[in-house]
Design brief:
The chain is α+β, with helices and mostly antiparallel strands. The protein folds into two domains: 79 residues, Glutaredoxin, CATH 3.40.30.10; 111 residues, Glutathione S-transferase Yfyf (Class Pi), Chain A, domain 2 (Up-down Bundle). A four-stranded mixed β-sheet has the order 2-1-3-4, covered by helices on one side.
């Protein structure tokens, strides 16, 4: 048995986990998920029925991890020390990983669904301020940094990079030269090509 099971649908955020597995050099067992008939094993592992969800079949028992950002970091912790942040990189690594999982995804999703904060009071209430503020924040960082942690690719780039990559591919993120350059650096990676190259544009 493989060490990991990945509940997977190619038209989902499970591609992020597939990329993360490729970066650590592990091929998980793919458990395909039909949206209309989700497998009982997925619902037992994650009652929300969300993908990606992984099961790590460890020596001491099975461990379930859900949420793409958590899966990315877990795989780095378990399998790829070189993709974990060094001490001096941890601030940037965790800052941007959680920014992408929280404010960035929320801002992008809300805008795609047709809603944005209407005034300063709403902007102060929501966790992202405004869509433009989120884009400007990402643009500011990647205008002076090649990757999340500077000049070195880490697992945070799988998650943050997926948000940028998908946003640019699907037109839900404003194009900026810095973000397009970051996307190009990510798309040149072999692990990206092996796992994310099937995203429709």
């Amino acid at each position: 048995m493989t060490g990991y099971t990945l509940f997977y649908n190619p038209m989902s955020r499970a591609l992020i986990a597939k990329w993360a597995f490729a970066e650590v050099g592990i091929q998980p067992e793919l458990a395909m998920v039909d949206w209309g008939n989700k497998p009982a094993a997925l619902l037992a592992a994650n009652p929300m029925g969300k993908v990606p969800t992984i099961i790590h079949h460890a020596a001491e028992g099975d461990h379930v991890v859900s949420e793409a950002a958590a899966i990315c970091h877990y795989l780095a912790e378990m399998e790829a020390p070189g993709l974990r942040p060094r001490d001096e990189e941890k601030a940037d690594y965790f800052r941007w990983m959680f920014f992408a999982a929280g404010p960035a995804e929320t801002a992008i999703t809300n805008k795609a669904m047709g809603w944005e904060p209407a005034d300063e009071k709403q902007k102060a209430t929501v966790g992202f301020g405004s869509f433009d503020r989120v884009v400007n924040t990402l643009d500011n960082w990647f205008s002076s940094h090649n990757f999340v942690c500077g000049d070195r690719f880490t697992m945070a780039d799988v998650y943050v990079g997926s948000q940028v990559d998908w946003g640019l591919n699907f037109g839900t993120l404003t194009e900026r030269d810095s973000l397009k350059a970051y996307q190009a650096r990510l798309q040149s990676r072999d692990a990206y090509k092996d796992s994310m190259g099937t995203i429709p544009t």
